């Protein structure tokens, strides 16, 4: 079962899709999410969000000023500023 991931900034949807792994930086340290992870609500710290899609593609974005949550198979990352790294 894949994770349903949504990464949004204050003014745009940055990336949405299915993933097998999501790693993000919180104010308490880096955290990784896979299917079956316990529910989490955390404050997002400035840093990278690394997403491995269900197809194995690696997506990297920068994000800061926001929060992230994990509930069921849904990971939502809401940032004041976020952008894909080319």
TrEMBL record:
Indicate the secretion signal residues: none
**Which keywords accompany this UniProt record?**
ATP synthesis, CF(1), Ion transport, Membrane, Transport
- Domain of life assignment: Bacteria
Q: What is its main location?
A: membrane
Cellular compartments annotated: Cell membrane
What GO terms fall under cellular component here? plasma membrane; proton-transporting ATP synthase complex
Q: What are the ATP synthase F1 complex delta/epsilon subunit N-terminal domain coordinates in residue numbering?
A: 3-82
Protein's name according to its UniProt entry: F0F1 ATP synthase subunit epsilon
Family to which the UniProt record says this protein belongs: Belongs to the ATPase epsilon chain family.
Gene3D superfamilies from the UniProt entry: F0F1 ATP synthase delta/epsilon subunit, N-terminal
User: InterPro entries attached here?
Assistant: ATP_synth_F1_dsu/esu, ATP_synth_F1_dsu/esu_N, ATPsynth_dsu/esu_N
Q: How does it sit in the membrane?
A: Peripheral membrane protein
Answer yes or no on keyword Repressor: no
Q: Which organism is it from?
A: Microbacterium mitrae
Q: Which GO terms describe its molecular function?
A: proton-transporting ATP synthase activity, rotational mechanism
Which Pfam family, just one, is annotated for this protein? ATP-synt_DE_N
Give yes or no: UniProt keyword Transport: yes
């Amino acid at each position: 079962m894949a994770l349903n991931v949504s990464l949004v900034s204050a003014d745009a949807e940055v990336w949405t899709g299915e993933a097998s792994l999501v790693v993000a930086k919180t104010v308490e340290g880096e955290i990784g999410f896979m299917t079956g992870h316990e529910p989490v609500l955390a404050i997002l710290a400035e840093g990278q969000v690394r997403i491995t899609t269900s197809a194995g593609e690696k997506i990297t974005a920068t994000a800061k000023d926001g929060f992230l949550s994990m509930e069921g198979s849904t990971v939502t990352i809401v940032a004041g500023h976020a952008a894909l790294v080319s």
